[in-house]
Amino acid sequence: MENVHQAAEEDDLYSGYNDFIPTFDSEFENDVGFQKAVRTTYGRRPPIGGKFPGTAIGARPLFSSSGSRVPLASSMGRPVTGAVQDGVARPMSAVKAAGYSSSLTRGSAFDPLGRSRGPAPPLEDTPEEKIKLLEKKINTLIEESCLARSTGNLQLALDKAREADREERALVKQREQSGSVDHINLDLTYSVQLNLANQYEKNEMHPEALSSYKAIVKNKMFSNAGRLKVNMGNIYYKQKNYHKAIKFYRMALDQISNAHKDMRSKIKHSIAVVFIAMGQYSDAIASLEDIMSENPNITAGFNLILCYHAAGDREKMKKAFQKLISVPLGISDEDKYIPTNDDTSSKMVIEAIRNDKLSQMERDLKARAEKYITTAAKLICPAMDASFASEFDWCVDMVKNSQYVQLANDLEFHKAMTCLRQKDHNQAKEILKTFEKKDSKMKSAAATNLSFIYFQEKDLDQADKYADLAMSADRYNPAALTNKGNTVFVKQDYEKAAEFYKEALRNDSSCTESLHNLGLTYKRLNHLEEALDCFLKLHAILKNSDQVMYQLADIYELMGDRQQAIKWLMQVICVTPTDLHVLAKLGKLHSDEGDKSQALQYYSESFRLFPCQIDVIEWLGVHYIESQFFEKAIQYFQRATLIQPTQVKWQLIVASCYRKSGNYQKALETYKGIHRKFPENVDCLRFLVRLSTDMDLKEVQEYATKLKKAEKMKEIREQKVKSGRRSTAGGRRDGSGGSAESQPESKRFSRLSDSEGDSNHSSGSNRGERLSAKMRSLTVSNEPYEADSQKELDASYMDPLGPQVERPKTGAKRRVEDDDDFGDEELGDDLLPE
């Protein structure tokens, strides 16, 4: 303690530190030598064998195994000053701060956290982890293949399945290399191969699919793989190799236990279908009966009825029908979709499940069952059978006592349609009248058909009555409105008929009958532009309808545009090249245009198809008379004589052609034949007198006497007719007495014969012109094509078993169709007169 001295209170312990000593004042920044030494020694490795400043000993390098020298650290374990360690140079601590350098000539920037080194290298996966990743990839490929198949992209599905197969093979090889063969995923292998086989089958690569299925079936490691023989049987069925198909179906059936009833029933049904394709109905019946006794279903029951029908066993068909209608569908009651309270959330749930896929599947199943039952009833009650009515009544009674009560009305309706096809209108009307007390839909359909029937029978009052009844039951029924318009059309109230047709089109814009009849109504009203618009719209809907195209041609002709009319008629010929009326119409239009060669071509083609059309025969005969080819003209007028043997004018023209061609003997024989058939014909007697005089025959006086008597009788008859007309002129409508059509045929042809007789003194061209003019004055129908008979309007009917309305059939017989029927029968004759 003697060496310890206490400081005085006035002494400052920290004094002297801020004192400046001039000796140490040196400007290092301006010292060039010092700065040069600093720049040359900073960060440089110390020389070998030298001593490091600030250390007790020098550092000697060691030689590594590769021959390079590694400097040793100091004895204190700290890095050598200026040496590089971990890529960073140790600074000269006497000059610069540790870890900081203003230049980057040596080492890197300041990075105490080591971020410049980058992320750590990934750890290597173990073989087991690689296998798991590969299995996940294979499962993904299988899912992508199935999704591509569900969207219809079969080629992509097949490519994904092949890729999955390649990856699965690589996975098995990798397991073998790692020595884990016992851990192979058999389920994954089975899935890959089965998916590949399915994709081959969907792409119709049947050999590859069979090869894949065989590989799976032969692999004993796969349990229950024998079921895939069903798929192999399906492929053989597609290839029409029925014997192998049955073989594989039966092999698959043997490998399925009785516990799987649904699967066994489906395989048995497949076997029955193959037997049906082979025509072995007895074997098919045995298989289907087995199904109906163990696990009945709708499809098997319907096919059993078909087999009995093919075998001709009516009684067994009835028994099978009873089994069919007793098959439970397993469909929930529709009442479950009716909300029981006012809860909004429950209503939303019920509305959602009402239209989901499960509900849609149930509706499809029910619709298919109803279709099968209806078709089976039609098979049991063939229309041509004498016991049709009793058989149908039996089917209706059976259906009424089953779960398909609502089908009874449809069967009754079908019975009425069948009676219509059999032309038994009374029975059909009796059946349809029973629907007057049914619900509004059935009532409207029945009244529509009744209106159609009465319209066919020309009972317009009853047709109008039931059309009103159908409209009152369902105002939006386009067929009822069309029938109502038809009844008004016949009464020539065209404005009102057009209103009904327009209303029908407002309710159903696709009602082609209303649109067609509206166009006809506008034609009657002479509104040609509106009629043209209607038929152009109808042509856009019915592209290949020859009736519509003919109406367009007729309208253009009425508008005076013959070229457009010819254009549309050419389109009609493209659709129906053997329509003789259209060919004759084309001939007439070309004749009016002055193109005689084209007219001759079309008239000749029409005559070739139907050589009994008088106007065509007349035009051809006149054409050859004008061309001075009397022999050809004789051929056509002789055919006219055969068609109308009571018309004397054709025979007189034949005789005249013989006379003009110079064959007077043949002309004389023809006139004699006419005189024997028509002894009072003045024209024939006049030519007989002339020919007998020219040929100096002894019968001249006889024919002259007969001619005087015939002329006197003719004058007496004319006087009686004139006096009778004068007496009745006040009470009868006059205006047709002076027309060419009202004159007797003999009188009209008398002027023709006189002109021909006088034509011997004129030139040949004048003869042809006068003859042509007189022949054209004969009675020739110039009415349009649809005006030939009562065929224009389309009466409509509604059939709940099929489509409500039918395509327009202008100028043709109307068909009554049923959606599920096996054939169509024509009903009635023409509908309406023009």
TrEMBL record:
UniProt-annotated stretches for the region Disordered: 714-834
Bias type Basic and acidic residues, positions: 744-754, 806-817
GO cellular component, one term: centriole
Keywords annotated in UniProt: Cell projection, Cilium, Flagellum, TPR repeat
Top-level taxon of origin: Eukaryota
InterPro entries linked: TPR-like_helical_dom_sf, TPR_rpt
TPR repeat copies, ranges: 226-259, 478-511, 512-545, 546-579, 580-613, 614-647
MF (Gene Ontology): kinesin binding
Compositional bias (Acidic residues): 818-834
The gene coding this protein: IFT88
PANTHER family xrefs: INTRAFLAGELLAR TRANSPORT PROTEIN 88 HOMOLOG
The protein's name in its UniProt record: Intraflagellar transport 88 homolog
GO terms, biological process: inner ear receptor cell stereocilium organization; intraciliary transport; kidney development; non-motile cilium assembly
One Pfam family of this chain: TPR_12
